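Below is how a single chain appears once it has passed through the pipeline. First comes the sequence as given, then the structure the pipeline wrote out for it. We keep one example in the README because the format questions we get most often are answered faster by looking than by reading.
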Amino acid sequence: MRRKKTHDSKNNLKIALGFFIAVLFFILTAFTFRLVSFFKASVFDGAHNFNVLIYKEKFFFDIVSFAPDAQSLSILKVQGDVDRQSLGKYLGIPIDGEIKLSSDKDFSEIRENKDVEKALNNYFFKFNKIETNLTVLDIGKLWIFTKKVSPVSINFKEVVVSKSDASKEFAIDKLMSDLFNDKSISDEKVSIQIINSTGVSGLGNRLARLVTNIGGNIVAVNTADDVSSISEISYSGDRSYTVKRLAKILGYKDTKKENGGISDIVIRIGKDSLSSNIF
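Resulting structure:
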């Protein structure tokens, strides 16, 4: 009788141990998936240019360009009659992330305080009080980079923009290329061709402006004879950082091309891009 009880106790112990191991396995698996998703959701790689729009009021914006590869940081103070959604399009630069501050006080500190680290800290540590499309990991990496930048490598500029004044575009582009040039793209020096396949004139030149402002080497802007529904990027050789960056900015699929042409990269603008803020 005692042997049977002992045998039953051992079986119960094995069952309990097996159940515990199974539960532990599922918990660890779920945690691993959450951890992977957490890192995948991050959009700042910590190594290349990343532009963040900071705003509170309707027509007052700051765009902070973090450039780890150049160990520099640029802050552009923007004022004018351009709304948030079309600001990147008007200036000809990509916006990678946005932070909406909860108070005018927080906003004025970054606009008026030359101590950038202190000003950025004021809202980096108020993550629960801001609206942003960045993750906690992104905010943390941006904060760490900010602490590493020397004060002499921080640039402050101001610009007043107006939708009705197209004559300022050249001066604005000069300023944008100075502040938002992506060193990694400039260093790669790969040639880029843009083909407008939308049937709408002018879109190729608009995209060429943005690509040039971030350091891209545009060798041709052409208009296709046929209209294409799908936008895409094709490239020869290795999938360079320039390809990856352009694909991320534009949201285009990139594929390797078999035959070489006049350029290393070809960007084809299709009709699916007509609703993009880029254009």
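Residues 1-40 form one domain.

See the next section for the split statistics.
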